[in-house]
Amino acid sequence: MMRTRPLKVALLGCGVVGSEVARIMTTHADDLAARIGAPVELAGVAVRRPDRVREGIDPALVTTDATALVKRGDIDVVVEVIGGIEPARTLIITAFEHGASVVSANKALLAQDGAALHAAAEEQDKDLYYEAAVAGAIPLIRPLRESLAGDKVNRVLGIVNGTTNFILDKMDSTGAGYQEALDEATALGYAEADPTADVEGFDAAAKAAILAGIAFHTRVRLDDVYREGMTEVTAADFASAKEMGCTIKLLAICERAADGESVTARVHPAMIPLTHPLASVRGAYNAVFVESDASGQLMFYGPGAGGAPTASAVLGDLVAVCRNRLSGTTGPGESAYAALRVSPMGEVVTRYHISLDVADKPGVLAQVATVFAEHGVSIDTVRQQGKDGEASLVVVTHRASDAALNGTVEALRKLDTVRGVASIMRVEGE
Ligand SMILES: NC(=O)C1=CN([C@@H]2O[C@H](COP(=O)(O)OP(=O)(O)OC[C@H]3O[C@@H](n4cnc5c(N)ncnc54)[C@H](OP(=O)(O)O)[C@@H]3O)[C@@H](O)[C@H]2O)C=CC1
Ligand SMILES: N[C@@H](CC=O)C(=O)O
After folding, report:
1. Which amino acids bring their CB within 6 angstroms of ligand 1?
2. N- to C-terminal Cα separation, the chain
3. Atom number, ligand 1, closest to the C-alpha of residue 83
4. Is the C-beta atom of 304 inside 6 A of ligand 2?
5. Which domains does the chain have, with CATH numbers?
6. What pLDDT is recorded for position 385?
7. Is 414 part of the annotated catalytic residue set?
8. Does the Cβ of 165 fall within 6 Å of ligand 2?
9. How far is the CA of 239 from the centre of ligand 1 (A)?
10. ω into residue 50 within 30 of 0, thus cis?
11. What phi, psi does 171 have (nearest 5°)?
12. Mind listing the pLDDT tens digit for each residue in 239-266?
């Protein structure tokens, strides 16, 4: 039976995502009410610039005082789509203290302060949902937290940043320059307010921390995630990747060690074979592989950024939280129950593609191969191309630890025949 008193929603932020949340709440009001069992009412919208025209939003609902809005005491659900750490963090905690549950899309905040926010929610017996924080529209948090709760996830490998996938795809497929592609991604609403978070891998690292924590039922902090951005990927790297039958993607990789005692989480550009399903993920789409004991390989794929796709995930959470409120329950809280060690990057084992600029003279190849052998890094293939006394040497290794590879590169740089290390790229997904 439909309850007539509406559930009241406070929307914090009305930008790329918030404006779509408000639009769908208005245009799909009847459907939402039917699914929840009660109507939902937009009770207030907090923004920075109140005078901006906001299509479809009653100006009387707009306020710059987000704190007063969450303190009203009659708000059922606060939807936080402001972004950043403060004031979002304080507003969410204040919302719990004043009786509201919270839906957020804020991966930066959840990766940094997820444990404290979950504790605040639990203390007040309220919900904290954030499906939109990882991979936009793709249902990923709930499948990991609920559908796979009875399985043992061993690996999560994916493209979780739409902006960088859009840029890398453009560079690869059209030869577009980095800045041109970034400007287009920003105009399309994919990039963060400061796109450094996207291109330097911070956004993907935040998502990796959230995913690893939920997938492995442990706590992974943002600082635990190894991170490299994609700003140094060049057209030459794409050419090398093509020669290997690969392309380049910014990947988030979270792994559980075979002994089950530790996990790793990392974000970096990597070559992946063109035959791998992640190689064909285009534009701002995201895709995430989940490997677990019983299910085997699962792949989640869809739009990972943009207003409407992200709003879809926010609205899904809103429906779930509203249903919980009506039935007087809360959903699953933080999944952490084991404090697994998060291993440093040096212990990660993978393959590497290394381009060296070397002198084109006899003995160089042997000298370089000796350095690899001395550091216990086995070579898979070597290709040398020389011209006018200089040469480029491309070495692809077998699997080796990051520590061993770093030691090798350090020693290579000391050889007088090695002019420079042009690039080092990990090779994944084989
Ligand atoms: N864009 C995307 O594709 C995705 C975004 N997200 C996340 O969603 C969140 C929102 O992103 P997005 O919509 O792109 O961001 P925008 O920058 O487009 O929107 C931010 C909104 O917050 C408002 N705001 C900022 N500071 C304050 C404040 N102090 N008080 C009140 N309102 C404030 C802004 O007001 P005003 O309009 O006046 O400037 C604006 O409406 C972020 O956490 C982001 O990481 C998650 C997945 C995808
Ligand atoms: N800036 C992010 C938005 C979604 O999380 C991205 O590009 O993926």
Report:
1. 13-18, 46-49, 52, 66, 81-83, 87, 105-107, 132, 136, 189-190, 192-193, 305-306, 310
2. 53
3. 43
4. yes
5. 7-136+308-327 (3.40.50.720), 141-304 (3.30.360.10), 345-427 (3.30.70.260)
6. 81
7. no
8. no
9. 37
10. no
11. -60, -40
12. 999 999 999 999 999 999 998 889 999 9
β-strands 349-359, 390-397 pairing: antiparallel
Nearest protein Cα to ligand 1, atom 42: 83
Angstrom distances, CA of residue 324 to CA of 7, 36, 81, 168, 381: 12, 9, 21, 41, 57
CA 48/CA 44 separation, integer angstroms: 13
Q: How many A from CA of 293 to the centre of ligand 1?
A: 38
ipTM for this model: 0.99
For residue 391, the cross-strand partners are: 358, 386
Closest ligand 2 atom, residue 164 Cα: 7
Length of the chain measured in residues: 430
pLDDT at 376: 98
Q: Could you tell me which of 340, 401, 349 has the C-alpha nearest to residue 215?
A: 340
- 333 by DSSP, 3-state: which? coil
CA distance linking residue 119 with residue 13, whole number of Å: 24
Distance 111 CA to ligand 2 centre (A): 14
Helix axes 307-327, 16-27, angle to 10 degrees: 60
What integer is the mean pLDDT of 129-137? 97
Q: Which ligand is the nearest neighbour of the Cα of 106?
A: 1
Closest CA to 22 of 7, 34, 11, 31: 11
Note the pTM of the prediction, 2 decimals: 0.96
